[in-house]
Structure formats: C-alpha cells, structure tokens
Design goal:
Layout lengths: L1 E3 L2 E4 L6 E5 L3 E4 L7 H12 L6 E5 L5 H4 L2 H8 L2 E5 H7 L9 H13 L9 E3 L4 E2 L2 E5 L8 E5 L4 E5 L3 E2 L4 E2 L9 H14 L3 E4 L9 H11 L1
Parallel strand pairs: 4-5, 5-6, 6-7, 11-14
Antiparallel strand pairs: 1-2, 2-3, 3-4, 8-9, 9-10, 10-11, 12-13
Bound molecules: zinc ion (ZN).
The site of zinc ion has 4 residues, from loops.
Length: about 220
C-alpha cells in the first residue's frame, strides 16, 4: 500500500515491512519467517522493480518477527543488511538477547518451528548514520539496539516497536516487551523532539494525522 509516493507499506508480512524509495530502494524490516515471496511480489507487481533493486535491508531491532525472512531475502536481493551495533550479535546468532524470559522463550520456539537461519548483518549502524535519505536515531528500550529511521524531507519516521498506533491511539510496548523502561522514555522523547509528520511502526497502522501531538501525549504518560 502506498503511503507516500516514495514510501510503501507491504501488507501480509505479519510484522509491518516498508519500502523507502530514495536514491536507492531500502527495505525496512523483513517480516516473519517465510514472508520473502510477499515482499518480492509487492516489489515486482506494485513498483515494477526487481529483487536486486533493494540495496539495503535495515532492521529496526533483532526480534524474529522483524528479521524472520532476512536470510532468504539476502539470497534473493544480495542487499546489504544493516542493524544497530547493539543488536548485531543477536541477529547473527552469536549472542543471546537480554529480553525478558517470556520473549526469549517465544523467540526460541519460533526459531525451532520455522527452521530459522541466522545471518550476520553487513553494516553496523551508529547514531546519525544515514541509510539513503533516512537518519538513524538510536531508540533503546524495547531492545538495546532498537532504532528509528527519520527522513527529514518528508517527515516520515519508522519507529520499529518503540511505539505503535492501533488506529485509535499511540502506545509503547507492553511491559513484558520492555527491556529498559528509562531508556524507552528517553527514546520516545527523542522521537517527540523530531516532530514527525507520519509515524510508521512495526505493528499496527500508519499514523498520518496529528502525529507529533499524539506522540507527545504518550510520552507524558510514560
Ligand atoms: Zn520487537
């Protein structure tokens, strides 16, 4: 679904996945395991592009519903995989996460049942790095290496799971999915200060109106 001419939301991949079209094509998150065909079909049918046109796959954080189809998409696109330095070793499978135990248990089950293959990212991101037209904003709290990607040209911010919008209200992650509450508050403050026009999150719906005010309201409740 087209959100803006240069920003597309790919339906049917369970956790939201986006294509940002700038000087290059960037895929933001890779959906749950087995969703690579949905993503490639969207690219081919809606954008008349080829898999290899995706130059970078950026991960907003290490959770398997966002990295699920990464291994297969790397094979299909040969894109560089980029992730924030704190989540790199978890994405590659070299380190286990510091998630709450419930989340680690669910992740473990998913990796077993989907025959998940870990893959090492190519690019280690840091605060203020640019991925095409988007600036990397480190937003720890949900995971230590969570990021938002902000495009100051169109005011779009991709926030991963740091914030969600259910079509009615903005919220943070549920308490059992918070890795560090104080860090999360600071991260939401960073997002608030950017005053974005459109918020695109890892779950839920696009927030396209009164975006800054709604994010500020949720910050005041954290
Ligand atoms: Zn997550």
């Amino acid at each position: 679904m087209e959100i803006l001419l240069d920003v597309h939301w790919i339906d049917g991949v369970t956790a939201n996945t986006y294509l940002a079209l700038g000087d290059q094509t960037t895929l933001i998150d890779s959906g749950t395991p087995g969703k690579q065909e949905n993503i490639i079909k969207y690219l081919q049918n809606e954008l008349k592009s080829k898999p290899e046109d995706i130059k970078t796959i950026v991960l907003t954080h290490h959770h398997i519903d966002h990295t699920g189809s990464l291994y297969e998409l790397k094979k299909l696109t040969n894109a560089d995989i980029a992730a924030y330095k704190e989540d790199m070793d978890i994405i590659s499978g070299e380190k286990s996460s510091s998630d709450p135990i419930y989340m680690r248990f669910v992740s473990k089950l998913m990796t077993i049942f989907t025959s998940y293959k870990f893959i090492k990212p190519d690019i280690s991101l840091q605060e203020n790095d640019m991925v095409d037209n988007c600036r990397v904003i480190h937003t720890p709290g949900h995971t230590p290496g969570s990021i938002a990607l902000y495009n100051s040209d169109n005011g779009v911010i991709f926030v991963g799971d740091t914030l969600t919008y259910d079509g009615n209200k903005v919220g943070g992650p549920p308490s059992f999915l918070i890795n560090d509450k104080e860090a999360l508050k600071k991260s939401v403050k960073k997002i608030t200060d950017l005053e974005p026009n459109i918020m695109l999150s890892g779950h839920g719906k696009p927030l396209t109106e009164h975006t800054s005010e709604m994010i500020r309201d949720v910050y005041n409740t954290l």
